Amino acid sequence: MPQRWSKAAGLRREQIESGLDITFNRVFLPYFLGCMEERAPNRILEVGCGTGHLAARLATVVPHVEALEPSPVMHSVAKDVLGNSNVKLHHSTIEEFRPSQRFDLVLSHLCGHVVSDIDGFCRACSDLVAARGLFVFSLPHPCFWNDYKEYFPRTEFRYAREQFASVALTITKDPSRPIDGLPFHHRPLERYIAALRNCGMAVTRLDEILPPKSVQQLYGEEWRFPRYCALHATRIHR
């Protein structure tokens, strides 16, 4: 899976830095900065940091930030983006990563739906969460995403059934440059909650992300439903 993102690394950097990516710059960046303000963690880990832009921004408000990126080309882009920051970047998968200390907050932004083994992914992330720490991960909202993108034909889509598709990612302000061949796993929300429960964590918060109308207007239409969500989970036993 890491190789799938290699051809997209430069494009994603351009889209983020130019402001074309509304969702990153105007929806998720404020959301995660808000999470940092509420939680005030000292040590965070971003799993699957992509271009590194989120980690770089979080490092301006969090004392210690580490980030993982398994894709060789994406890691190279992130290394450049993070060059002037204090973020400690690792070229590693979450399953291979062996830090010396656990983290107050482990963050995964739009990664859970691309991994095939959600139980293994949640377990690996939860293993790095400190005793009173938090695991936060964002997803395309399982209840509404197919109404928005229709990755699965409406006649075949069943919310309660896990389904897989190879899809093309496009952003609203740059529709002519798709990133194709990306894995997309639809899972009902209860499946993610079960994966967390199975590794000793419990969901304490579910945010259904709807940006202000002023931001929605940048997409050219009002959002009829939340396109994304984020789950917050804490450890109930180790």
Q: Please, could you describe this protein's structure?
A:
Helices cover 30% and strands 30% of the residues. It has 8 helices and 9 strands. The chain has a 7-stranded mixed sheet, with helices on both faces. Strands 6-7 form a two-stranded antiparallel sheet. β2, α4 (72-81) and β3 form a beta-alpha-beta unit. α5 crosses α7 (189-198). It is globular. The two termini are 29 Å apart.
Biggest β-sheet: count, sense, barrel? 7 strands, mixed
Poorly predicted runs of 5 or more residues = none
Strand content: 25-35%
Helical content stands at 25-40%
What Rg, in angstroms, do the CA atoms define?
Answer: 17 Å
As laid out across the biggest beta sheet, the strand order is 3-2-1-4-5-9-8
Order of helices and strands: HHEHEHEEHEHEEHEHE
Distance between the termini: 29 Å
* Total beta-strand segments: 9
Overall outline: globular
Give me the number of helical elements: 8
Average predicted confidence as pLDDT: 95
By helix and strand content, what is the structural category? alpha/beta
